[in-house]
Amino acid sequence: MGRFSIKVYKEYFNFACAHFMMFTDGGREPLHGHNYRVRLQGHGPSLEGDVVFDFLHIKPIVKEICDVLDHKLILPEKAPGLSFEDDGAQNVKILTKDSSFSIPRADIAFVPIANTSVELIAAYFAEEIQKRALDSHGFRFSSLEVEVEESPGQSAVFATPSCEKGDF
Predict the structure, then answer these.
(1) Does the pTM of the predicted model rise above 0.90?
(2) How high is the mean pLDDT of the chain?
(3) pLDDT tens sequence across 89-116
(4) Are 121 and 87 in contact (CB under 8 A)?
(5) What integer pLDDT is reported at residue 168 of this predicted model?
(6) d(Cα 128, Cα 142) in Å, to the nearest integer?
(7) How many CA within 13 A on the CB side of residue 102?
(8) Which pLDDT tens digit goes with each residue over 67-78?
(9) Average pLDDT, stretch 9-13?
């Protein structure tokens, strides 16, 4: 017996944002940006109503996650060597070993990852997709692969382990 999956990659699964990678010595690369694109393939535990998961349900989930990051500075909340201070004037001061700068809070997307590599951004998307599909539709992919492309021909893929109900 085979298994079924869905692949979804829409033109609007994209976000443009700024970021910088943190180095192990506490330094950082220069602030820069990318125009990211997202694709996914999700395997279902079984077919419900002859579908893995309705495309009408998955598309808004992915789009919502893209929208959270679109036109923001992505900051990794779990990065060692990176700290944040609220300056009391709706700005956030970002501190690294070698620099500090302030950005309006409204222009920042704090992401619960250790660095802003495309690999960890793909893992963040996979976790968010699983959480949101479960919360909004009671559905869990048995496995999920998310590809995030940071520039044409340059992407990373995160694949969840196969999971049973309650895992992930």
Answers:
(1) yes
(2) 92
(3) 899 999 999 899 999 999 999 999 999 9
(4) no
(5) 31
(6) 15
(7) 9
(8) 999 999 999 999
(9) 97
The dihedrals phi and psi of 67, each to the nearest 5 degrees, come to: -65, -35
Q: How far is C-alpha 105 from the chain's CA centre?
A: 19
- Count of CB atoms within 10 A of residue 145's CB? 18
Structure tokens at 124: 């963040």
Per-residue tokens: 118: 């495309």
Both tokens of residue 139? Answer: 């559905």
CA dist., res. 53 & res. 142, Å (int): 11
C-alpha 126 chain-centroid distance: 7
Type of residue at 139: F
Token pair 């009671």 is found at: 138
- Residue 61's alpha-carbon distances to 1, 9, 37, 154, in angstroms, are 30, 12, 15, 24
CA distance 165 to 121: 24
